[in-house]
Amino acid sequence: MLSKFVFLFPEKDSVPIGGYKIAYQYAYFFSSVGYDVHLFYPFVRIALFYQGKISVLKKIKIRLGFFYRTLRKQQHAGEWFNFTYPIKKHFTFRFSKNILNKLPKNSIVFATAVETAYELSKITKIPNKNKFYIIQDFENWKGNTDKEIQIKKYR
After folding, report:
1. What is the mean pLDDT of residues 106-126?
2. pLDDT given for residue 143 in this prediction
3. Of 84, 69, 80, 130, whose CA–CA distance to 104 is shortest?
């Protein structure tokens, strides 16, 4: 059975972004040779939503917005990239152990940002040999530098 290739993005994109383009090219390639490819996008960035930087009322409004857009099928990402092979896009409120633990054990998972690598590293169901971090440079603009150093060592 062919492995499932999964790409975890830090957020949805509506315009071309360099890092996303590279990840989309990898996804396109794997799909073109017959693998089952899935792209996951959270509605909210982990750092913004769970570090107490916004009010409870704002959090409720964001959750309602997610459910409204999901029900109305208004969740879109990567529309600017021409995927001619079947690739499945998944929109979730946020990455959590519940969502990531639903991935099959033999999945090959690519984290595409510091936040996604950190979340992926917590999942023990998927062996480390099946986890990859697509990095373009040392990314320290989203949080604690010490954490990024640990994540950069993550394999």
Report:
1. 86
2. 54
3. 130
What's the number of domains the chain is made of?
A: 1
Q: Please give the average per-residue pLDDT across 91-114, as a whole number.
A: 83
Q: Are 39 and 90 in contact (CB under 8 A)?
A: yes
pLDDT band, residue 60 (cuts 50/70/90): confident
Range of the domain at 53: 4-153
Nearest to 106 by CA among 84, 129, 86, 122: 129
Give the sheet arrangement for strand 108-111, strand by strand: 87-92, 36-42, 4-8, 108-111, 131-133
User: What span, in angstroms and rounded, lies between the C-alpha atoms of 75 and 98?
Assistant: 21
pTM for the structure as a whole: 0.77
Residue 102 sits in a domain of what CATH number?
3.40.50
**Scanning the structure block, which residue is given the tokens 């383009």?**
21
Instruction: State residue 93's pLDDT score.
Output: 77
